[in-house]
Specification:
By secondary structure, the protein is α/β, with parallel strands linked by helices. It has 20 helices and 19 strands. Strands 1, 2, 3, 4, 10, 15 and 16 form a 7-stranded parallel β-sheet that branches. A hairpin with a 2-residue loop joins strand 17 and strand 18. The two termini are 52 Å apart. It binds zinc ion. Zinc ion (ZN) binds next to loops.
Length: 515
């Protein structure tokens, strides 16, 4: 039976257009999905948009639109953007989709029936930005810590999910499965939230229709809609087929979540307790990454530093931007985007190291071997060394991808690029070719280079898919990614076969000037 793999991004809240933060999460998920497909695993990649709640209703009203018309538009922008930059999702879910609504109502009914939801009167300070009542810890000088606005005093009867009864279980689970939430710093943060309480209480999961109608109706009380977070988290189940698609069970049993650290609490505390209450197994891992700062500042609409993925594609090509995002953030930590840093990466790694290896290999193959992959004349220790580097790169990439370290996986591939460039420098086939008696050596060198380049392109496939396809096409191996099985095919070091026709081409990544 084949192995399964399922990866999710958060569903993006449709109050802003896609920026560098959304793009990073989505690109990492896409890279993981592509990697696991290449590893022969049955892969399911879920993304989408989160469309309910008062903030959306307010934003729609500001634009003079009905909420559904407003969310159709913004959700469409996300979907079109991901399509344009080649994100290989299997399902784009919207929380306004009929099957999502049914999944939410099914889960609510189940949790309600077993007595984990009750009805209480509550009076407190409510922040419209947060869409919830605040605790002392959420406020600084009487203002919401996140929104810097004064909360309103409200009294309401609402439904509460008895989340706190699962806190002991969750703490024990995090002790028993130390990498359930990774990297470790985020697991420790969740443990601290549970220990100190952090103002965490039973979770209010409803809004009276008298103040908000834009939401999913509670199946057990038609006067209320569901709180947006409770609704949104259930997309992960709905998107995989909950409650009754036969594919649901195997997908969910392989589920990996990818989120930025600002939504650790709902994914690290609310979600596992909800799953437990619903009698469902937990996700495999919650993988948490840091923030992108732009020019050393937090990104914000008002600063105008959101960084649009389509603008980056226009200016640098999307693979170059994608490479930068994956390479320059150590997964879990914050990272800094500047256009200077992007340009430096493009020139150093893509134009010089990789681009140079491609052009010198294919130019010399054209010049000395009629453009065909040459028949080698034996292989010595230096060739063995390049082959070993290829095996090691394939092994390291597999290890790092399974640990959610895409930056390290890329470093491992570029170690192979460097090893191959050093090999060419040492063999200097352009000198050897001046001596007819040394043409066997030239053929051996170029054969080794073509094979190394083939392995490099396969390994790069999940990270920079268009570039990988282009390298393979020039090597006469179009479509090789479709039949490759990583890490084995990349480590095999046995293609392209001698006699395969290759093609020179334009510079793979022309050098770019700093802006
Ligand atoms: Zn707030």
């Amino acid at each position: 039976m084949s192995r399964h793999y399922a990866i999710t991004t958060p569903i993006y809240y449709v109050n802003a257009e896609p920026h560098i933060g959304h793009t990073y999460t989505t690109v990492v998920a896409d890279t993981l999905a592509r990697y696991h497909r290449l590893a022969g695993e049955e892969t399911f990649f879920l993304t989408g948009t989160d469309e309910h709640g008062d903030k959306i209703a307010e934003a729609a009203a500001r634009d003079g639109l009905e909420p559904k018309a407003f969310t159709d538009r913004i959700s469409g922008i996300f979907r079109d953007t991901w399509d344009e930059i080649g994100i290989s999702y299997d399902r784009f879910i919207r929380t306004t989709d009929a099957d999502h609504i049914r999944a939410v109502q099914t889960l609510l009914t189940r949790v309600h029936d077993q007595g984990d939801i009750d009805f209480r009167e509550y009076e407190g300070l409510y922040c419209v930005g947060c869409e919830r009542f605040l605790t002392d810890r959420d406020m600084v000088d009487g203002l919401c810590r996140d929104h810097e606005r004064a909360p309103e005093r409200r009294k309401e009867s609402n439904y509460f999910f008895k989340m706190t009864r699962y806190f002991d279980w969750l703490g024990e689970t995090l002790e028993a499965q130390p990498d359930l939430i990774r990297p470790e710093r985020y697991r420790n943060e969740v443990l601290a939230m549970l220990r100190e309480g952090s103002g965490l209480d039973d979770l209010c999961i409803s809004r009276p229709k008298s103040r908000l109608t834009w939401g999913i109706e509670l199946p057990f009380d038609a006067d209320y809609v569901c709180y947006v977070w409770f609704d949104a988290l259930i997309n992960y189940l709905a998107g995989m087929g909950y409650p009754d698609d036969p594919a649901f069970e195997v997908r969910w049993a392989a589920a990996e979540h990818l989120v930025a650290k600002d939504i650790l609490k709902p994914h690290g505390v609310f979600w596992p307790t909800m799953l437990r209450a619903a009698g469902l197994p937990l996700y495999q891992h919650l993988n948490v990454h840091g923030y992108w700062n732009v020019d050393d500042r937090k990104i914000s609409k008002s600063l105008g530093n959101m960084i649009s993925p389509l603008a980056m594609r226009e200016q640098y090509g999307f693979d170059a931007f994608r490479y930068f995002l994956l390479r320059d953030m150590s997964f879990g930590l914050d990272a800094s985007f500047t256009e200077e840093a992007l340009v430096t990466r493009i020139n150093a790694d893509l134009a010089n190291n990789l681009g140079n290896l491609v052009s010198r290999t294919l130019n010399m193959t054209a010049r000395y071997c009629d453009g065909q992959v040459p028949e080698p004349d034996g292989a010595g220790a230096e060739e063995e060394h390049v082959r070993d580097a290829s095996v090691e790169a394939a092994r390291a990439v597999d290890e790092h991808m399974r640990r959610l370290e895409p930056n390290r996986a890329l470093a491992a591939i570029f170690a192979l690029v460097d090893a191959t460039n050093r090999y060419v420098d040492a063999r200097a086939p352009w000198k050897a070719a001046k001596d007819e008696a040394r043409m066997g050596e030239v053929r051996t060198t170029l054969h080794t280079c073509c094979q190394a380049l083939h392995s490099i392109a396969l390994l790069l496939g999940p990270f920079v898919p268009d570039t990988a396809e282009e390298i393979l096409a020039r090597l006469g191996c179009s479509g090789a990614l479709a039949s490759a099985r990583l890490p084995d095919t990349a480590a095999a070091f046995d293609a392209p076969a001698p006699g395969t026709s290759t093609r020179k081409g334009e510079a793979l990544f022309p050098r770019v000037e700093a802006p």
